[in-house]
Design goal:
This protein is α+β, with helices and mostly antiparallel strands. The chain has 18 helices and 43 strands. The protein has 3 domains: 248 residues, Beta-galactosidase, Chain A, domain 5 (Distorted Sandwich); 97 residues, Sandwich (Immunoglobulin-like), CATH 2.60.40.10; 319 residues, 7-stranded beta/alpha barrel (Alpha-Beta Barrel), CATH 3.20.110. 27% of the residues lie in helices and 35% in strands. Strands 31, 34, 35, 36, 37, 38, 39, 40, 41, 42 and 43 form an 11-stranded mixed β-sheet that branches.
């Protein structure tokens, strides 16, 4: 018994020592995470990673993957003299990059030395107080970190976090970097996985599972996995590198309320098992595969022959055998199967011929790339079948061309954008051209298209001022070409020109400020200038930012302007018709004022207009973007075969700030409309409103931005408006004292 007791004690002691050793090892495990605090940055080292974070914005300066020898952070360039360090947070109610990106945080290691807490207290001129905490968890055996961003309202007023340009977007976190040449963006949004180099940008709405940047050559991957509900994903590529940005929904934080955003950042080797462990799910076996589908038409008729081609490209790695399978989704039937050997850097072109289904609508197909029984790539595609109804859908295309006044009081131009947009925005079909002349040449090349242009009067004024001093250079020749070309197209009835208040003020704001006479004078000046230059009657008004107030009806009527366009999203909900019917954006309307004023109006389709302006502009495949546009028009056609669809948007930025391929959108769109002319046709604004009968008896005030805060709110803007009010008051008082005319209409004579 004593021996047993002694043995038991020995075993117990050994057990306690072993348990203590194990427990001690577990407590000490975080020592594999070493944290060194410096003056303005903190260095964190694990067996796998070396991460250097600056106190300013809690941004990453270096992210070195030790076993690969690659820094995933150091290569990023500059924007506006700000180095775009990866990992930055943004409250998008502030102009980019926002206070948090530049503010100096305080840093404290947590107790177990595997966590860092960055904190910053933000206040504004309205005594709103926001505490911002970023808590980062490091692991000794992982290539990822876990981050919590905690926002606490420490003040007594609500704090709303929303983008001033898009009220659905709230707090945002981003990773910007350049690894080396050949970087690729990757993302999973819902069930969709995408790969590419999105130049310059795009926004994908909805659930964002993850977003990343990787490089096949270096075999490294850096990405973000959000754990909160998301609003959208922003993808951008510029000369400084690539960006992926997770945008959470807009939110209002009550006093005392705390909001948490959690996400994971992986930066390490491009190995599927590591990425799957971190949470980057759904990745194909070969990330170097690219597939693109081409069709011989944008839409088909029932039973028509369909010719499509599949372009399959392998960017890197070893070659292997694949089966390319084309499947009809509804029947699950395999339409075609091809066997090929894929060589690196080779492009395979597979041609398929089939018959369009004898049923109107969209028909879905799946393309599968299979190797040795494994699914390597799967892409969805579709064809649209349209049955013309005798009537044609009316499409009103309105392009807004605007540049502010760059001509100073000395007669010098402070910017030459208004000339570069004529001749030198980009290469197009082996010639240098600007977007303004591209609009003209597209109409000259593709007959049968009608377009409505708003060429802002102050843009025309500056062109005329240039012609006063120059006649034989490239700029002056281009000015003469576009003025003469548009004048001729207007005479042919293929183009309608709209005017604007000459200096592009927002009419509703001037009316609300009591400066109606100033607004009327500017509208008269703009109308007069365009009529003299183009030798025709101007009957329509482009309202800057679609900032409408009902008093504008009387002003337009008095000036002789009879028609305009308003934003469907902002205004259609406030419309009340005399007939009592529910309004639709696909009919023209008459707005009558109590004073007898009358104008005619179309409502632009906000969704499709924004699709062209903000999504299709980032396309890498303009034909596919136009197919998507036609599908959206087809859905309207089914419900409103006699309807009028108005697309009204910026005619410059979608093509010059978009991807390289975006410049071809204009031509592809016009070609598609001509190809599908048995169910769709383009008309001008004037033609569209000519037969309007429904009368609007009430409509709200607003703009296509949803209101006026973007132009009115904020310390700097409020100061500028107050200064403008003060100067205008002085000018009015002086004018009265000398017996002058308030809000005169001077004759414009460019010098």
């Amino acid at each position: 018994m004593r021996k047993l007791t002694t043995l038991t004690c020995i075993l117990l002691i050994i057990g306690l020592i072993s348990f203590s050793f194990i427990a001690f090892s577990r407590i000490k495990a975080p020592d594999d995470v070493k944290i060194r605090l410096m003056d303005n940055h903190v260095v964190v080292e694990t067996p796998l990673l070396l991460i250097n974070l600056t106190y300013y914005g809690a941004r990453v300066v270096n992210w070195i993957v030790k076993d690969v020898g690659v820094d995933l952070a150091a290569g990023v360039g500059y924007t506006d003299f700000l180095k775009r360090y990866p990992l930055w947070s943004w409250i998008p109610s502030e102009p980019w990059p926002g206070e948090l990106c530049l503010a100096k945080f305080k840093v404290t290691p947590r107790k177990d030395h595997s966590q860092l807490e960055f904190r910053y207290f933000k206040t504004d001129e309205h005594d709103r107080r926001l505490a911002v905490y970023r808590v980062i968890k490091f692991y000794p055996d992982k290539y990822f970190i876990d981050v919590e961003e905690i926002l606490v309202n420490r003040g007594k007023r609500e704090i709303t976090i929303e983008a001033y340009w898009n009220k659905s977007i709230g707090y945002s976190i981003s990773w910007s970097t350049r690894i080396e040449s050949g970087d690729v963006q990757a993302w999973k949004a819902g069930s969709r996985i995408g790969f590419g180099k999105i130049w310059p940008w795009t926004r994908i709405y909805g659930r964002v599972n993850w977003a990343a940047i990787y490089n096949d050559g270096s075999r490294v991957w850096i990405g973000i996995i959000p754990f909160n509900q998301t609003n959208s994903l922003w993808l951008e590529s510029k000369s400084w590198g690539e960006e992926v940005r997770i945008e959470f929904p807009a939110i209002t934080i009550r006093p005392g309320q705390e909001v948490k955003y959690a996400y994971r950042i992986f930066g390490g080797p491009l190995r599927r098992e590591l990425l799957n462990e971190a949470g980057f799910t759904g990745l194909p076996p070969d990330l170097s595969l690219r597939l693109r589908t081409r069709y011989d038409k944008y839409a088909y008729r029932e039973g028509e022959e369909v010719n499509l081609s599949i372009e399959l490209k392998k960017l890197a790695g070893e070659g292997y055998n694949v089966s390319i399978v084309f499947i009809e989704d509804e029947s699950k039937k395999v339409i075609k199967r091809f066997n090929e050997f894929l060589h690196p850097h080779e492009v395979k072109l597979i041609n398929i011929r089939l018959t369009a289904p004898r049923r109107e609508g969209i028909h879905h197909y799946t393309i599968k790339i299979i190797s040795e029984g494994r699914l390597f790539l799967e892409e969805k595609t579709w064809i649209l079948v349209v049955k013309p109804r005798g009537e044609r859908l009316k499409l009103v295309l309105v392009w807004h061309l605007h540049q502010p006044i760059y001509l100073n009081s000395s007669g010098d131009f402070e910017s030459f954008k208004l000339f570069h947009h004529l001749i030198s925005d980009f290469e197009y079909d082996h010639e240098r051209i600007g977007i303004y002349l591209l609009h003209l040449k597209a109409l000259e090349r593709i007959k049968g298209i009608k377009v409505t242009f708003n060429i802002q009067p102050c843009l025309i004024y500056q062109w005329l001022a240039y012609l006063k001093k120059h006649r034989d250079d490239n700029f002056s020749k281009a000015i003469i070409e576009i003025i003469n070309g548009l004048r001729e197209l207007a005479r042919e009835g293929r183009v309608q020109l709209l005017t604007s208040p000459i200096y592009h003020p927002l009419p509703a704001i001037l009316i609300d400020l009591g400066w109606r006479n100033d607004l009327e004078a500017q509208i008269r000046m703009g109308k007069q200038l365009l009529e003299e230059v183009f030798k025709l009657n101007i009957s329509g008004l482009w309202i800057p930012e679609m900032a409408f107030n009902k008093q504008l009806v009387d002003i337009m009527s008095e000036v002789g302007l009879r028609m305009t366009i308003l934003d469907e999203r902002e205004f259609i909900g406030s419309v009340r018709l005399a007939s009592g019917k529910a309004p639709t954006p696909y009919n023209p309307y008459i707005i009558r004022s109590k004073n007898g004023g009358e104008i005619r109006v179309l409502f632009r389709d906000s969704q499709i207009s924004d699709m062209i302006g903000f999504q299709a502009s980032s396309t890498t495949d303009p034909e596919e973007s136009v197919r998507e546009l036609l599908y959206r028009l087809f859905k309207i056609y089914k419900e409103h075969p006699k309807g009028v669809v108005t697309l009204a948007l910026d005619g410059e930025n979608p093509f010059i700030l978009g991807s390289v391929e975006a410049r071809y959108l204009l031509q592809k769109l016009y070609e598609a409309v001509i190809e599908q002319k048995d169910w769709i046709e383009t008309i001008t604004l004037e033609e569209a409103v000519r037969n309007a009968t429904d009368v609007i008896i009430d409509i709200g005030e607003g703009s296509w931005a949803g209101g006026f805060d973007i132009w009115m709110e904020g310390t700097v803007k409020e100061k500028m408006w107050n200064e403008l009010k003060r100067v205008r008051k002085m000018l009015v008082e002086y004018t009265k004292s000398i017996g002058g005319e308030i809000s005169p209409i001077p004759r414009l004579d460019p010098e």
